[in-house]
Write a structure and sequence with these properties.
Blueprint: H1 2-13, E1 47-49, E2 54-57, H2 58-65, E3 75-79, H3 81-84, H4 92-97, E4 99-103, E5 106-108, E6 113-125, E7 132-146, E8 153-162, E9 168-178
Parallel strand pairs: 2-9
Antiparallel strand pairs: 1-3, 3-7, 4-5, 4-8, 6-7, 8-9
Length: 179
Amino acid sequence: MLLVVTSFVMLLIAGCSSASYQEGMDFLEIDTQPTPLTGEFPYFINDVLPQPDSKMSFAEYEDSRDGFFGPLRGIMIETFAEVYDGIYHAYPQVASENVILILDGNLISNQLQEAASGILGGVIVDPITGEPTGELYDAGPFWISWNLKLRPGVHTAEVWIKTEAGEILAYRWEFEIVR
C-alpha cells in the first residue's frame, strides 16, 4: 500500500496526471502521508460500513450495493460538516471532493463515489461578531460511499479527509467478506 500511495503522491508532486485518478483528489499534493487512526472512531468519523473487524457474507455485501439509498451502498463513511469547514459552509459536494478511499492498497476513483447529507443544520454565526447571519448551513451527517464489487476475503479500507485548514485526517479499518 505504501508503494501505491507514495507513487501517486510523487506523480502529483511532479505535476503529472493520470486518467485513473480523477479530479477532486488534488489535495493529495503532499510530501508526507498521514498516519491513519485505527480502532474506535476518531472525532471526524461517526460511522463506517462495513463495520470495523466485522464479517459480512458475500450475499449481504452484494445486497448493500443494491440498497435503496445510494450513499449507503458498499463501503461508506459518515461524518459531519465541522470536519471539513470550521465556518460550516460544507455541503455533500464539498465533503466528497475532500475525501478519498484507499482499498486494499489501491486508490479508488472519486467518480465511483456518491454523497448525501441528512439535515439542514442551523444558522451560521459570524465568527467576528458572534451574531447569527441568517444563512443556514448543512450540518450533515454526510454519507459518502463507494459502490464497489469485492471478492470474499479480508479487506483494508482507509479514508483520507482534507479539512479547510489543509490538515489530512485518516482512518483505517478492516472487514471480511465471507462466502
